[in-house]
Amino acid sequence: MRFLTIALVVILGGLLIAAATATYTVSETRSALVLRFGDPVRVINDIGDDEAGLHFKLPWEEVLLFDRRNVEFDMRPQQLQAGDQERLEVDAFLRYRIVNPLRYYQTLRNENGAEARLGSIMEDALRAVVGSIPSQDVISGQRAELMDRVERAVDAAVTRADLGLEVIDVRILRADLPNEVEERVFLRMRSERQQEAARIRAEGEERAREIRASADREATVILANARADADRIRGEGDAQRNAIYAAAYGQDAEFFRFYRSMIAYETALREGTPIVMGPDSAFFDYFGSQDGR
User: Fold this and answer.
1) Is the dihedral of CA 36, 39, 41, 47 positive or negative?
2) How far apart are CA 229 and CA 41, in angstroms?
3) pLDDT tens for each residue of the chain, 293 residues long
4) Which of 150, 201, 208, 277 has the greatest CB tally within 10 Å of its CB?
5) Do 146 and 170 belong together in one domain?
């Protein structure tokens, strides 16, 4: 009786072990690849299928599970040479999805193999793209365009290799100068900016000289024209004055002579002004009599 109990326990245990090795569960976020003696025989819950749940296999079959969700691969920082021969430290990551578990297993085997292959592809793409543009554009000016070019290059390489993957996204987290060259590049950039500032100042001074010279020429022309106009107007005024004097002289010559003498006296006979002339000078005619005789 005891022997029968032991036998039943052994048989029951064997059945439980066989049941455990003959069943497996595939979740909605996984695909399963069934191997028989190392050779793939079928894919469960492949992309586009809905086969999640409990499944059965032979005891000598092995099941590998692959994530159907997006997988992130964060590559280690790389030092790359930009188009202006400056070295840059670039940190990037990639998101991908397994779209063909069988091909993925055949070419990459597992996630470690995928990361090694994708790391090589990413490094080649980054090296080619970063090496084609100046370091300043990589650091500040064209980050979005740079990521698009790298993504296209990586996607093309993955498609050619037929790895069973789909590239979802490529992002550059950081692209900076290494610490050992940052100070040197900063000094060079400062020198270039100083040279540019000196050039701009020199051009500004040259332009200022041209403007001042042009203004001086215009001022000279304006002054010359103004003097000419003044001389012309003064001449016209003198002519009109002389005409008025002549008309007045024609109307009463004696009064005109008297008036002119009074003006001459007022002008010449100032206090403290010495005058030397003969007593019979015509200048003093109106001092002798009102009619000047």
Assistant:
1) positive
2) 111
3) 676 677 676 667 655 565 567 788 899 999 999 999 889 999 999 888 888 888 888 888 889 999 999 999 998 888 888 887 878 888 899 999 999 999 999 999 999 999 999 999 999 999 999 888 887 777 765 678 888 999 999 999 999 999 999 999 999 888 877 776 667 667 777 888 889 999 999 999 999 999 999 999 999 989 989 998 888 898 888 888 778 777 777 776 777 777 777 777 677 666 666 767 666 666 666 666 555 55
4) 150
5) yes
Cβ atoms of 55 and 24 closer than 8 Å? yes
Are 98 and 165 contacting, i.e. CB atoms less than 8 angstroms apart? yes
Same domain for 166 and 79, yes or no, is yes
**Domain-terminating residue out of 139, 154, 177:** 177
Tokens 């008297």 belong to: 258
Query: Is 76 in the same domain as 167?
Result: yes
Neighbours of 113 (CB within 10 A): 14
End-to-end CA distance of the chain: 187
